[in-house]
Amino acid sequence: MKVMVILGHPQPGSFNHALADTVVETAQELGHSVVFHDLYQEGFNPLMSAEEQHAPVFADPLAEQHARELTGTDGLVIIHPNWFSQAPAMLKGWVDRVFRARVAFRFNEQGRVEGLLKAKVGMVITTANAPLSREAEIGDPLPTLWRETVFKPSGVPTFVYLPLTPIVVSTLTQRQAWLAHVRELTKQHFPAR
């Protein structure tokens, strides 16, 4: 099984990095091939030009590489902070440039979207500082955004969302428990062959 892991956090050594390391290590221990991208560390350019938007080819070799890897993956894990109830702009730009028509989906003759990805699982792990009670009060748009506008139209049938919060006051014990939970989720959704 090929698992793609995308990290969208700018700060090296962040808890998001520890989460990504846990997913990568666990998937590798299970015998899976892992493709890992730290978007900030790689210097991924999130800006899509007008020419690239409708072109059948990529203007950027790194975006093209990510798209090629995406089409060959069996599962995708995206890890990012929840900033103002959104993913960081870097990650939004990555989705715009990589999850594009002719890569992740196509329009059929009736104009309906048909998913092109072979991935069976899309998992999103987020971190935030607002307590879950606040997220429940105002509503967390991220699971709907990822499930309904990214994974479902791309043909990915299983969606898993794990919000971890509040990070700012979390203890070492809490963070270790979260990492253990992420390890178990990875085992559950990407079992050893």
Notes on the structure:
- With 193 residues, the chain is of the alpha/beta class.
- It has one domain (2-189): Rossmann fold (3-Layer(aba) Sandwich), CATH 3.40.50.
- Helices cover 41% and strands 20% of the residues.
- It has eight helices and seven strands.
- The protein has helices spanning 15-29, 39-42, 50-54, 61-71, 89-98, 132-138, 142-151, 172-189, and strands spanning 2-7, 33-38, 75-81, 105-107, 113-115, 121-127, 158-164.
- The chain has a five-stranded parallel beta sheet with strand order 2-1-3-6-7, sandwiched between helices. It has a two-stranded antiparallel sheet with strand order 4-5.
- Strand 1 (2-7), helix 1 (15-29) and strand 2 form a beta-alpha-beta unit.
- Helix 1 (15-29) runs parallel beside helix 8.
- The protein is globular and about 50 Å long.
- The chain starts with a strand and ends with a helix.
- The mean pLDDT is 95.
Could you list some keywords that capture this structure?
alpha/beta, 5-stranded parallel beta sheet, 7 strands, globular
Which secondary structure elements does this structure contain, and how are they paired or packed?
Blueprint: E1 2-7, H1 15-29, E2 33-38, H2 39-42, H3 50-54, H4 61-71, E3 75-81, H5 89-98, E4 105-107, E5 113-115, E6 121-127, H6 132-138, H7 142-151, E7 158-164, H8 172-189
Parallel strand pairs: 1-2, 1-3, 3-6, 6-7
Antiparallel strand pairs: 4-5
Helix pairs in contact: 1-8
Task: Give a summary of the structure in a few sentences.
The chain is an alpha/beta fold. It has a single domain, classed as Rossmann fold (3-Layer(aba) Sandwich), CATH 3.40.50.
